[in-house]
Amino acid sequence: MPLVSLDLVANQTFDYIIIGGGSINISQTAGLTLASRLSENPAWSVLVLEAGNSHLDLGDRPLITRPGQFGMQINNPEYDWAFTTVPQKFCNNKEYLWSRGKGLGGTSAMNFSIWTLPPKEDIDNWEKLGNPGWNHKNYQKYSTRPVTYTPLDPSINPSVPAEAFRVWNDANTRGEGPLHITHPRRILDVDIKMNQASTLLNMGFKRSRAPYEGDTEGTYLGLNTVHPTLHSREFAFTAMQACALQRPNLSILTGAEASRILSSSSSESGNDLEATGVEFSYNATTNDHESYHAHVRREVILSAGSLKSPQILELSGIGRPDVLSKIGVEVKVPLDGVGENVQEHLFFGCSFELRDDYSKDTYDLLRNDIEREKHIKLYSEGQGIYATGMVHFAFMSLKKITPDAAMLYAAEEARVRQDIKEKKYPPGLAEQYELQLQYNRADALDCEFVSLSGVLSGPSELLYPGFTASYRLSFTSKIDLPRPGKKYYTVIAISNHNFSRGTVHSTSNDPREFPAMDPHYFEHDIDLQIFIEQFKYIREIAETAPLKDIISDDPATRELNPGPGVQTDEQITNWLKQSFDTAWHTTGSLSMLPKDKNGVVDPKLKVYGTKNIRVVDLSVVPLQFAAHTQATAYIIAEMAADIIKGVFVS
């Protein structure tokens, strides 16, 4: 135990079956975390069904273990499901890549290892939408449970101001969990100039007072999921190895793709539906339709992520009757909120060429075979570029970056008021928009800026299909763009509280058919307008010292993407639509809301109309938040474990 063979699962009975051990979303981080916590009770048997591979041979998988190789797994079929959206109406019908991790640990094994927490107000809004106990006080209490924080010795990076490392309140616990977080061992010079020494400070921003205690406004040096002495990536599976891998009551079956939840009754007959097990395929090929069953005594817990959890519910007969009828699935529990209210973070990058006399390291060195081998050797000693990470974060209100903020929000409020008057919104959405509008007036942290010492920008279509191109330009690509021998710096803008709402719905009763993913990008124009303002602000950042002092002064080449030919709002808009992408932080598709507000799960994460089906992943988040989602996936799992154990106090 816990990795088991098919014969130990098929037709066997378990107390808890968790669908998803890391396969589809950062949410799958939640699946393994929850399995670890539930298996602490030796009287409970726990089964995890994971569609991807185990990736146990981590010593042979540097794409996972080296922190500085983030993004390299994207579009690689060994690690990435590589979903795509449907053509986007407001983006010239372009389709966008939605990468999701494939294997134990899910996207936590292929993400950028970022550990950030939301501002207090974002989490308190969940409770205001009708979810008692889901507030920042409880969130904060559980935020230290999955992790152990180890401060990085400031002497390792003497050029970084010592206060930059003081992001965790030493008066509080340093955590108690198996997942290690710390600052990467090496902080690159250009990140120091951007964050702490300090372009943004020169623009009037402050250092965040308490970025891991709910006060995230400002700029700070963020933590990564990195082991403090091994300097390797930490993710959900390595955390499980530290505490649960040898428990005899925990079973994990990889290559097991859940098809549907088996049940004994339906709410239409007046009784709540009761799950009896899970149907799944095992290492199935395209032509292999054989299915297997695992039975359950207590609960089936969906942790397949914001993209697949709705599909599994729909194939189980739980969802919108109109969707189920189209795919030929019997309606067992009608729930109109399934697959609705989808929210996403969006990002784009602008890349700038650095001066020829800038001698410090950037990721651009890794485009050179000799340099790459050199830094692989350095990494074995905890040094070099592979021992770095994404560490610069800045969160701010729209008002901080443009005097037009009030005008933009007023235009959106007028639209929302008119739409409410015309009854255009489904139940519950008006209340969400009211909270967002209130929050905007109170300076919500709608804008985020991150940076990378290399190239992470588009348009990727000019290179080769797939967003991977944008990443690989900074690593191993042989493409002559960016220019050989040159170094670059990318400032990335992220929009945190988009008004547009999307959907994720099944298009077939075949579980191997991907659902239709339609984020409705820019359906609300304010989402685009905020992006445009962030774009303009990035150019202001590039004109501010000390970052300005290391950027090339050649007007023809200093801006790689989008370049000097993009100036007007129309040109900016066209470039953005070709170059932005999702941050793969999808939430909301099975929202935790009152049932009459299009909710799918109650505050105990139980699916309405069922006795024993819960959802524990980012799909339950009812309103998007200003942070990268990895930490919140872990925290939701920790809260869910106590809810299931009956010890959660709201």
UniProtKB/TrEMBL annotation:
<keyword id="KW-0560">Oxidoreductase</keyword>
<dbReference type="Pfam" id="PF05199">
    <property type="entry name" value="GMC_oxred_C"/>
</dbReference>
<dbReference type="InterPro" id="IPR036188">
    <property type="entry name" value="FAD/NAD-bd_sf"/>
</dbReference>
<feature type="binding site">
    <location>
        <position position="107"/>
    </location>
    <ligand>
        <name>FAD</name>
    </ligand>
</feature>
<dbReference type="InterPro" id="IPR007867">
    <property type="entry name" value="GMC_OxRtase_C"/>
</dbReference>
<feature type="domain" description="Glucose-methanol-choline oxidoreductase N-terminal">
    <location>
        <begin position="305"/>
        <end position="319"/>
    </location>
</feature>
<keyword id="KW-0732">Signal</keyword>
<comment type="similarity">
    <text>Belongs to the GMC oxidoreductase family.</text>
</comment>
<feature type="binding site">
    <location>
        <begin position="584"/>
        <end position="585"/>
    </location>
    <ligand>
        <name>FAD</name>
    </ligand>
</feature>
<dbReference type="InterPro" id="IPR000172">
    <property type="entry name" value="GMC_OxRdtase_N"/>
</dbReference>
<dbReference type="GO" id="GO:0016614">
    <property type="term" value="F:oxidoreductase activity, acting on CH-OH group of donors"/>
</dbReference>
<feature type="domain" description="Glucose-methanol-choline oxidoreductase N-terminal">
    <location>
        <begin position="101"/>
        <end position="124"/>
    </location>
</feature>
<feature type="active site" description="Proton donor">
    <location>
        <position position="585"/>
    </location>
</feature>
<keyword id="KW-0285">Flavoprotein</keyword>
<dbReference type="InterPro" id="IPR012132">
    <property type="entry name" value="GMC_OxRdtase"/>
</dbReference>
<dbReference type="Pfam" id="PF00732">
    <property type="entry name" value="GMC_oxred_N"/>
</dbReference>
<keyword id="KW-0274">FAD</keyword>
<feature type="active site" description="Proton acceptor">
    <location>
        <position position="628"/>
    </location>
</feature>
<dbReference type="GO" id="GO:0050660">
    <property type="term" value="F:flavin adenine dinucleotide binding"/>
</dbReference>
<keyword id="KW-0325">Glycoprotein</keyword>
<protein>
    <recommendedName>
        <fullName>Glucose-methanol-choline oxidoreductase N-terminal domain-containing protein</fullName>
    </recommendedName>
</protein>
